[in-house]
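Need a sequence for this fold. Nothing fancy.
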């Protein structure tokens, strides 16, 4: 079986990391998998970049320009919206023609257009689409928060000026997506049971096959190491308890940094406590922290990232919206107990008071309670062992690859039945 995984980026972003890991998991379990990306960042032979052309940049810029105009020239939600009005036609590529399964992942920001996806569906090849957020089930947004319009039809979008209207951009893109899905069936795969449940509520995906399969992780790379040695390599203090926060961009409001700051104020009585901040713009939030902070910035060296996890005593992710975050999975694989809000797929990863703590949504005091419990009250070693065990049982390469093989077999069988 030959699978072509399609994603905008090879390495940048959680979806890229997950797609890359899946490709490796499939190849390690008897499937010939390749990855097609717009932004190729390595010399890996199994990753193919789109043919270099000025159109690639133009696709991205044209979509942003149209959205910018619809936002009345405001940048506030410029990257919270995608309309997929421009993208590449991948059906002519040799890699596409050789594949038995086309597996879409995060294809926004100029990778594929809705018309491009229609061409993929019209090719007759089975299409699987892994949902790394809810965009495939809504009109234009990646994060719905309290909005439930997609259950009936997107309109009056909260991201548009004045709260949108009954005939705004979200309505028009919703109709385009509906027409696209009429061209053929897509086997949708959510990364969490929570997102599967949300997708099944969407009127846009009515009648489509939807299931859930978690992202994989290579436990030969992410594993529990010596904490003191990891701290020495990173130049972190050896005599402190360290809370770790990590995000691609730590100032992203959806990652909940403000809640962590408030929680840390409630933990100021714990002696020798510090916060490690991993991610872009880490230095921008240091002054907000009531505890000693150690900004590490953005890191793309995987071994250094593993060291960062192993250096921490607890990992915290106070996100306001999440699917199945790779960061929690990575921390747990390294034996680090985790704390996060009860939102999205986080409670599927963290088993409350077994390998971490699930705090009530948007409650900084409960977030602090969970961090305090792990750092000063719980049987810490048992939490660490349970975290490693959870990852091995649920998110290993072999476990996830076998689940996707079943999805591919079903997609092929369904396509042959329709023919």
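Here you go.
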């Amino acid at each position: 079986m030959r699978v072509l995984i399609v994603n905008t980026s090879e390495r940048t972003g959680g979806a890229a990391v997950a797609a890359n890991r899946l490709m490796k998991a499939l190849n390690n379990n008897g499937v010939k998998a390749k990855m097609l990306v717009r932004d190729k960042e390595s010399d890996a032979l199994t990753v193919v970049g789109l043919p270099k052309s000025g159109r690639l940049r133009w696709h991205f810029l044209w979509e942003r320009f149209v959205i910018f105009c619809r936002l009345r020239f405001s940048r506030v939600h410029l990257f919270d919206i995608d309309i997929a009005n421009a993208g590449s036609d991948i059906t002519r590529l040799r890699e596409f023609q050789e594949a038995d399964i086309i597996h879409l992942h995060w294809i926004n920001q100029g990778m594929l257009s809705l018309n491009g996806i229609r061409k993929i569906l019209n090719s007759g090849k089975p299409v699987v689409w892994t949902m790394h957020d809810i965009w495939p089930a809504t009109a234009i947004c990646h994060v719905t928060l309290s909005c439930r319009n997609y259950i009936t039809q997107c309109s009056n979008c909260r991201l548009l000026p004045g709260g949108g209207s009954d005939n705004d951009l979200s309505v028009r893109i919703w109709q385009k997506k509906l027409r696209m899905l009429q061209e053929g069936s897509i086997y949708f795969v959510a990364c969490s049971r929570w997102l599967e449940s949300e997708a099944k509520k969407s009127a846009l995906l009515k009648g489509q096959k939807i299931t859930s399969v978690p992202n994989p992780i290579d436990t030969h790379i992410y594993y529990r190491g010596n904490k003191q040695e990891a701290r020495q390599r990173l130049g972190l203090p050896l005599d402190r308890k360290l809370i770790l926060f990590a995000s691609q961009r730590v100032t992203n409001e959806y990652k909940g940094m403000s809640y962590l700051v408030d929680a840390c104020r409630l933990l100021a009585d714990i002696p020798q406590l510090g916060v490690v901040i991993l991610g872009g713009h880490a230095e921008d939030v240091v002054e907000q922290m009531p505890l000693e902070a150690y900004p590490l910035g953005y890191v793309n060296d995987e071994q250094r990232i593993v060291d960062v996890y192993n250096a921490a005593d607890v990992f915290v992710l106070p996100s306001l919206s999440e699917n199945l975050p790779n960061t929690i999975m990575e921390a747990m694989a390294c034996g680090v107990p985790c704390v996060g809000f009860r939102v999205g797929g986080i409670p599927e990863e963290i088993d409350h008071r077994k390998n971490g703590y699930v705090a009530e949504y948007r409650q900084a005091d409960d977030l602090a309670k969970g961090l305090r419990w792990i750092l000063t009250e719980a049987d810490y070693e048992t939490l660490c062992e349970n975290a490693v065990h959870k990852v091995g049982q649920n998110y290993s390469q072999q476990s996830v690859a076998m689940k996707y093989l079943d999805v591919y077999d079903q997609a092929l069988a369904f396509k042959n039945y329709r023919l």
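For context: The chain has a mean pLDDT of 96.
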